[in-house]
Amino acid sequence: MAATLLGASFVVFGALYLAPGNPAGFLLSGRSASPEALAAINAQYHLDDPFFVRYLHWLGDIVQGDFGRSITYRTEVSRLLADRLPTTLLLVVMALAVVVVIGLVLGWVAAVRGGGTDSAVLVGTTLAVGTPSFVAAVLLQGLFAVNLGWFPSSGSGDGLLDQVWHLTLPAIALALYLIGMLARVTRSAMVEALDSEHVTVARSRGVPEGQVIRRHVFRNSLGTVLTTGGLIVSTLLVCTILVETAFSIGGIGQLLELSTSTKDFPTVQAISLIIVALFMTVNLIVDLLLPLVDPRITLGSRSSSV
Question: Which fold has domain 81-294?
Fold first, then answer.
């Protein structure tokens, strides 16, 4: 993880310098400046240092918890992140809860009942998977916020309950595509498990059908579902940028979008590195949980080593 994060930090830092424009031009807002003023701006933000010197200086500050100073907001990046990150995390948690509950239920019902129910779930999930988050955001905002007035159309609210109310529509918009994906993965895994030999043996021994589904079908499908869950969390972190922008939510997604358009290098670099770190953390958690969900993974690795 340390090596991956180090490589990602270099890519994150270097990618911004390939884009046209520079922070000094934004600070000057198109105004002409004397060479002395331009030199002072470059010196303040280390823009006139060689690339590797800037990278090592930035990396040293990051290790010490210093993300630098925002060029756009003229304040510490760590303060911006502390103000906005909780809103984004709450949005991701709400969307994840919606995805897990509805996605697992739809996949379970489609696999167990089959027939017309299975076909209806497949059609619904196909529509969900084919609907991008920003399209879902516009549709939900127009119907439930503008026309019906059931939910706020923008903002993140004040206080936990008000925040949950404001973030309900964004969470649904963020979750819609992933609900379809998780439902289809759950259905496929459970259908495959239903045709396995140990399920046939359990049924032949008179084990109740509900117990067969819970212990022998769904449990054996959890490995595939959990692996997909890691991808779902990673996708949620990225798609928040589109949803937060559509609903004017003051999270790190909207902050990243604004900072990118204004060439706010320190803020973009800090948010990008945090997203990479969250990706790696989610993958680590999934790798640690997989042997607990499916002991065959651990047994298989031991057998191969022997």
Answer: MetI-like fold (1.10.3720)
